Amino acid sequence: MTAPHATPSPATGTTLVIGATGTTGSRVAARLAAAGHAVKAAGRSGAAVAGAEPVRFDWYDPGTHDTALDGVERLYVIPPVGDPDPAAPVLPFLRRARARGARRAVLLSASSIPEGGPAAGRVHAALPGLFDEWAVLRPSWFMQNFTGDHLHARGIRADGVLVTAAGSGRVGFVDADDIAAVAVHALTDPHAPDTDLVLTGPRALSHDDIAAVLTEVTSRPVVHRPLPHAQMRERLARLMPPAFAAMLADMDRAISEGAEDRVTDTVERLTGRPARTFREHAERALLAQPGGSDQPG
User: What is the per-residue pLDDT across 272-282, written as a single tens digit (0 to 9) for each?
Assistant: First the structure.
């Protein structure tokens, strides 16, 4: 179990950022490097990341794990996306990391997944027994889902339609930059959080609210088209494995029932600045793009 009086470790060792070209991983790697921390940027291709040492890493290829872990004291852990049982590859890796001297791990989970729950919830439950210094980030759904390369964003760009089974349920959507800022704090502060952290934006918004903001910011009409749960599941199953499609449709239904209708002060409490609003995010992400008219949670 967690050591009750573990000595805080100074943020001097190398941090391994898994998924370093992804939505949060890229931001965490960039912030750490900009602050002068040694970073290993891990990904399947081993692509170069500014200010970091690139390293090839594949959850399903243990032969890539030891090289990635050489000299590493801290880990930013993004479980494999789309795997219904990420604990199977992640927990053996984390045990290996601990045995090789890693002292702190920060896991990216989701606000919709409790400790001991499905998917990353099993990793969450095991983390305190593996590391004396740890944190689990449980962000709400990303604002980038509506402005980046997510299915929602593609639908908005293609025909101005946002399709969900979330009904009028509200979500405290959070900016990935705010998630990264909290992650860096959790990785580098002398005292690890040693808890889970639910991260949200400053307001809970419905998907109708999101469509309205996007319409105002871009001057292009965007509408939210709600679907029944079964139709949403069938729609998603044409694009991804059925089990994952069902899980996403179930998450939408949970939103419709109020499961994500909350806000927290975690971003401001840990970073010293307010969480970004969706309008601020949309203006920055969309108005800066050519023509003016960027994934858990």
Answer: 999 999 999 99
- Residue 37, classed as helix, strand or coil, is coil
> Residue 289 burial by CB count (10 A; 0-12/13-18/19+): exposed, middle or buried?
exposed
Closest CA to 148 of 31, 296, 295: 295
- In 3D, which of 149, 199, 145 has the Cα closest to residue 174? 199
- Structure tokens, 42: 């891990």
C-alpha to C-alpha distance for 223 and 228, rounded to whole angstroms: 16
Contact residues for 108 (Cβ-Cβ < 8 A; gap 6+): 24, 76, 77, 78, 79, 120, 137, 139, 179, 183, 296
Q: Check: CB of residue 162 under 8 Å from CB of residue 156.
A: yes
This prediction's pTM: 0.91
Residue 292 in this model has a pLDDT that exceeds 70: no
Class of residue 45 by CB neighbours under 10 A (exposed 0-12, middle 13-18, buried 19+) = exposed
User: CB of 225 within 8 A of CB of 161?
Assistant: yes
Question: How far apart (Å, rounded) are the C-alpha atoms in residues 201 and 199?
Answer: 7
Closest CA to 111 of 276, 294, 259, 271: 259
CA distance 78 to 263: 23
Between CA 138 and CA 210 the distance in angstroms is: 21
Is the per-residue pLDDT at 41 higher than 70? Answer: yes
